[in-house]
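User: Quick sanity check before I run a bigger batch. Here is a single chain. Can you write out its predicted 3D structure?
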Amino acid sequence: MADTTEPFVRFQGVQKSYDGETLVVKDLWLDIAKGEFLTMLGPSGSGKTTCLMMLAGFESPTHGAIILDGQPITDVPPHRRGIGMVFQNYALFPHMSVAENVGYPLKVRGIDRAETRRRVQRALDMVELGALGGRRPAQLSGGQQQRVALARALVFEPALVLLDEPLGALDKTLREQMQYELKHIHESLGVTMVYVTHDQTEALTMSDRIAVFNDGIIQQLDAPAMLYEQPGNAFVAQFIGENNRLMGRVEDVAGDRCRVRANSGDLIEALAIRAQGGGSRTLLSLRPERVAVNPHPGSMPNVFNAEVLELIYLGDHLRSRMRVCGHDDFIVKVPNWAGHVHLRPGERLTVGWQAEDCRALDAS
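Assistant: Done. Predicted structure follows.
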């Protein structure tokens, strides 16, 4: 990511309403650095795609301004913003060859034929389709068509590329392959990319930063590791990765720690992230891989009795559903270090975790 004091893209107090009453996007302030790969992540209806469409120029803000490279673009039509766009459905012209599809943005910009051929070949080589310029889109696989759409978005060398759920139509293997290819293309070109998805794995794999949307608001804006390791509220903790949730009331707060009386009556030590003080309701967030089975006595402040209810063998680990602190849906991921794991349904044991791995968040 480039080091710059001025953001390349800036949303200034942007709001969007389609009916004049309900705000789909609520007072958005967001800066995107030049050369950054930023992902807008969230469930359907969270406002992420609307933000992308406003940046592209296909929707207009109800209030606020959008700045691109220091210039307001709210009133600039889409074709004059110089932004590359990749859609989920590819939007390729079926009657044109691959090379003609990729060269179309250059044609409408009046670029001469020789220069067009050079840029088209460079763009196709970039996505490893240099030998397929003469084919029609129908002769390509889904993954190849998506690469053509990406080449078309890059061919006129835009400083900003927007990607709207571009891998949603691909199967799992192709989608994972394209995630790495997109990341490598971004790294090699240094172009600013804004990516919209509801798939957390895509976001974690490719992004410099992720803006997690819900109800028209950015819930947290952070690097992928920070979002996963340090979710700032209950929504982010639930949306990013698998998460055990235990409801309770705060007993007391001391510095950055608190003690929470779970609904089961168990007393749990945790980090006081959003704990409001003694007696307040809170939700405890704990990742399944941070739970130890039969920990050594005294090694952890939180140790509780557990009963194995269900086991799923997943090769590198065993996913175990247990009854812990009154919850029957408590998940523990047990690493398969030795090629097998000795757990059985109905087995009674203990589980434990460190206070640093358990976060007291808002109770919503």
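The first strand starts at residue 9 and ends at 17.

User: Great, the batch can go ahead then.
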